[in-house]
Each structure stands twice: as structure tokens, then as C-alpha cells.
Write a structure and sequence with these properties.
The structure is a homodimer of 217-residue chains. Chain A has 217 residues and is of the alpha+beta class. In chain A, 41% of the residues lie in helices and 14% in strands. Chain A has 10 helices and 5 strands, in the order H-H-H-E-H-H-E-H-H-H-E-H-E-H-E. Chain A has a 4-stranded antiparallel β-sheet with strand order 1-2-4-3. At the A-B interface, helix 2, helix 3, strand 1, helix 8 and helix 10 of A face helix 2, helix 3, strand 1, helix 8 and helix 10 of B.
Chain lengths: 217, 217
């Protein structure tokens, strides 16, 4: 962890470390996942192995979802042909960095997630039929829980000592037609993954203050 | 961290620990946030202080969002009157545990998040007007990024050595009318927070296998 952290921008003492004693998670882990972790825009050439991706998934899968529905599906875009097809659907500003990243993953949500509920939520046998009968409920639950799992995946990439570059700038209809024409999968995000390269990080944008976000009733 | 982990169910050696050498995050932190952390259904009486909530937010706020838009808003339901109003909107199965939890938070998304973009995304001054002019884009971005931030918040609760009990079983229209009649906030989840109590954990439900979720193109 040390080497990766040493290469991240930011000074620990500036980053709310006065609240450290309120948390059980170590300051190093807080930095790796949240405080000093950053969205990367360039990457080195170092490949990302399938074994690494497996470890990332095997960590991220434990994050909670409603009724354990786990709608996230992941496409690793490994072949040059698939990479080209993907890049064509991206916004201009995302094309070059995605063409060059060591690994690109499409994070999608399966709107037919309910077909797996007999496995994932076995103690409530009516769950599958409840979602099958209500398209609006199924879509809402898919999008909420798919996004939760996108977040777990991004943090698990960081847990693996890698940087993530999540993007939502693409033509979603074109991307879905190119990759998911035969399924009910819909893209939620595209993520570049690898070791951060030169100039990977933009200046950090400000976060909202506690009092702008949290109120008491 | 040790005491909290000791009280969580699960045997480390069963939990994919053969992949530990692929990750930089320590096994203890993996357990605290993902592997042995569990959704809790009962809690002790121990209060959750405002200082603890501040530390949770100050960690969670660093998680990435599209264009740094940070649409999550959090209501700490502290007063008995507000707790009663909230409980009335919940599904039957969620009422008793929410009435008894030491802290309950409503996690909502602000559909007027774009009003804060001049602060949070200052280098792209057209961002605010772009979202103001496109309700569909604004709603989609709010829901996706609000859900990402729900996930960051849940993991930050765990980072604080507390258990979270997220719920989506409620009458959303009634909840929004009761708490957000004067704003563009919409509930995404309700979360009970505290130290896990007796019988807090149900049997762990299965996760999807790697090969059910990840494909290569």
C-alpha cells in the first residue's frame, strides 16, 4: 500500500485527520479508498490481470443491495475490436484516454436481475414474481442497486492498489446497441482501470461541507 | 477495530482470503467494510453522536461522482416526533426496528444539485445551465450519483465501527411529502445506524459468482 499512497497527491494532515479517532478504519485504508484516492485520467502500460479483476469482484460482491438483488454486470473490454467499438460511442473528451487505458470495464445493470432471485434471495420465494409483474419497480430497483454496486466496484479497484477513471460521457443508446443488443443490460458507467500515469490527476474539486448536506429533524 | 470484528459472524478463512495477495487493502479493512460487515436488524441502546456522524460524512464525501455533483442529502431523524412521522411511512416489516434504532438517517437526492455546481465544478461554468435545461439528464444524474453516495455513506458507517441497516421498503410519496414538501429532495434509502444488538444478523444470502457477473469482450 505504501508505494501507491506515496504517489497520490495530498497531505494527510490537511484532510480532516482530526476526526480519525471517530473511525475504526485505519488512516491508511481511509486514504487508499477515499481521502487520497483520485479519479485518474492517464495510466501506465502495466496490464491489469484477470486474477486482479477477480479479487476486485470478490471484494465488491459483499456490498449490500436491496433484497440482495445484485444487478451489476461487468464487461471487460479486452480485445482491440471491442475497444474500438466502445470508444466510438464515447464523448470526444473520453476517447483518447479510454483507447490507451490498460483495462476498460463497462459497468451495466441487468434489468432481468430478478431471474436470479431464487438463488440470491431464497427465503422469499415470491420475490422473482413480484419484480416480474412490475416493470417500474424492477427498473427503479435495478438502477439504484446497480449504482450502489458501481460504487463498491470503484472502491474495490482502489483497494487493489489501482486507480479508476469512471465516466458517464457516452451515447448510452449506441453503447447498449453495440454491447447489449441481445440482453436487458443497460450501461451505468464505463471505467478505465490501471496504475496512474504521468499527469493522471486534475486539481481536486471541492466537496460540499457537512452543513450543506446534513440536517437534523 | 478488533472488538467490532470479533463480534461479526463469519470465518475469515472461508471468505476468499486466497485472493488477499491481489489487494493492497488490509484483510482487516476488507472485513470491516465488505467481507464480514453485515446489514443489522437490531441495535443496542448506545447513542450515535453528532461527532461520529460528522466523521462518517467527512470520509464518505471523498467518493467520486459525475462532474463532482454530490447530490446526496442526509436527514438525521433525531426527534421523537420526526421518528414517528418517518415510521408511519415505512413498510410493516421495517417499523419496529426503525422505531428502536439509536439513529435513523434519511438518504435523499437533491434534484436541484446543479445549483451547487458553480462551487463543486468551478472549471466548467456551463455545467449548471446544462443541467437546468435538461430535466431528464438532471434526474438521471441525480439518481445515479445519489446512489453512489449512498454506497459511500454505508461503507463509511462501517468504517466508524457501526452497523448499517439500509431499507428501501417505504411509501416514497408519503415520505417525500412528510419530509421534503418544500424542496426537490427525493428519498433513496432509509438507514438505521448503531451498534448491532442481539440477533442483529440474518443468515448471509449468497452472492453471484464471478462468472455470472463478469464477461470479456
Amino acid at each position: 500500500m505504501t508505494t501507491f499512497l506515496q504517489n497520490l497527491p495530498g497531505d494527510l494532515t490537511d484532510l480532516d485527520s482530526q476526526l480519525d479517532d471517530q473511525l475504526d478504519l485505519s488512516p491508511q485504508a481511509q486514504d487508499l479508498l477515499f481521502r487520497r484516492a483520485r479519479t485518474a485520467n492517464t495510466f501506465t502500460d502495466e496490464p491489469v490481470s484477470d486474477e486482479k479483476v477477480r479479487a476486485i469482484y470478490v471484494l465488491a460482491k459483499w456490498g449490500p443491495t436491496s433484497m440482495n438483488n445484485q444487478p451489476l454486470r461487468i464487461v471487460l473490454v479486452r480485445s482491440p475490436a471491442a475497444r474500438n467499438r466502445l470508444v466510438r460511442t464515447l464523448s470526444e473528451g473520453n476517447k483518447a484516454k479510454t483507447a490507451a487505458a490498460p483495462l476498460v470495464a463497462i459497468l451495466a445493470v441487468d434489468h432481468a436481475f430478478h431471474e436470479k432471485l431464487p438463488k440470491t434471495f431464497p427465503h422469499f420465494t415470491a420475490a422473482r414474481d413480484m419484480f416480474a409483474a412490475n416493470d417500474a419497480l424492477r427498473e427503479q430497483s435495478a438502477n439504484l442497486n446497480g449504482a450502489l454496486q458501481v460504487a463498491y466496484f470503484l472502491l474495490a479497484v482502489r483497494a487493489a492498489g489501482l486507480a479508476a477513471g469512471p465516466m458517464t460521457g457516452y451515447d448510452a443508446d449506441a453503447l447498449n446497441a453495440s454491447f447489449f443488443a441481445d440482453s436487458q443490460h443497460k450501461v451505468l458507467a464505463v471505467v478505465n482501470i490501471g496504475k496512474p500515469g504521468p499527469g493522471a490527476y486534475r486539481e481536486r474539486a471541492p466537496r460540499l461541507d457537512f452543513d450543506e448536506v446534513v440536517t437534523t429533524a
